[in-house]
Amino acid sequence: MTSTTTMHTKNLVIGLSLAAFSCSTGGGPSPSPTSTTPTSAAGAAPNAAPTALDPSMPVFNLDPNLSSNFASCATAGKTASLLPANILFVIDRSGSMNCNLPPITSSADCETTAAKKDPSSPSKWEVVRDALKQAITSLPATSGAGITYFSNDNMCGVQSKPNVDLARLTQAQLDSLTASIDAVKPNGGTPIVGALMNAYKRLNPNQYPDQPLGNKYVVLLTDGQESCSPDAVPDLVNVEAPKAVSAYIKTFVVGVPGSEANRAVLSQLAFNAGTPSSPTCDHSGSAPDIGDCHFDMTKETDLGTALGKTLASISGQALSCELDVPSTSGADPSKVNVQYTPTKGGMPVQILQDPSRPCNGGADGWQYEDDGSKIVVCGPSCDAVRGAYRIDLVLGCATVVR
Question: Do both 124 and 228 map to the same domain?
């Protein structure tokens, strides 16, 4: 992160320019050694130059005694920018995507004959295609997006470079993504392992120095199970996905009709890849068709609507209220406070720390991620700061807890 230190009379604060974003589920990465997957995705630079502090801005709009206490105890700070989200969509284009949805064509029948039974009804791919385009066009322009498909050779092939590489969502990028999605003709096998491994490598700065600025996410969407390298699935789920999380790359997993028999693997993958539906979701692998940690679309009667809502939910989680923790030497994490200013020239509003519940479990305020690497603003407080003029962190004063 690029940063500068700025005096504000006696008070030193951290000011973060804020783009549009939504609420975070929180959760932090767990440490792990790395080899072929990313060794580190940390250290990404902010999307824009730091915003200079306004010397006329008051520290807090609180009672005079508390403001006075803050003015006397603030000791250090820097400025920074909120990092945008970058989403790499990894999409199944196997032959089974040609089938109609159940009940017109059951998943079992689709495995036998991968073709439309009713030409007047949409195929799985046509429903997925429309939902994908809507989801991508709904992302804020500050985000980045790319897309890759599997297979790429109508058999078991995967490519190291996405079909449309990650880039900011300019109109040209949106046009490229839309054209790419519209050109897909489903065919071939289901090399999930190879596709995800290449996605992780693409987001590895050691292999691709031209990394996009910001946080990184993979969205896997499939209608089946690994058909090309089934023996490599345990390594992907138990080793490589956690390595990606340790490199700050999380993977959302979506299973559409056809993936019923792969629920256990998809659920375990979502859990280990940092995006479980809940802390207590079933990733036991007790049976191949049991698991609910991923986004399971197999029971939906209206896939188009349900998938649209799911992709919107994923986008909302990726576009999170996350702030980098100050790296000032000797900074005390118990002496950090957060405020935001809704509009330029407005009075700042304090956000209280709320460690009482998980961020996705009803917390309203800010809290540290599990590994202490980021501050996450949760619940209504996150909604309140969406689109705010600026956020400030005040260091050196005892944290005010809800």
Answer: yes
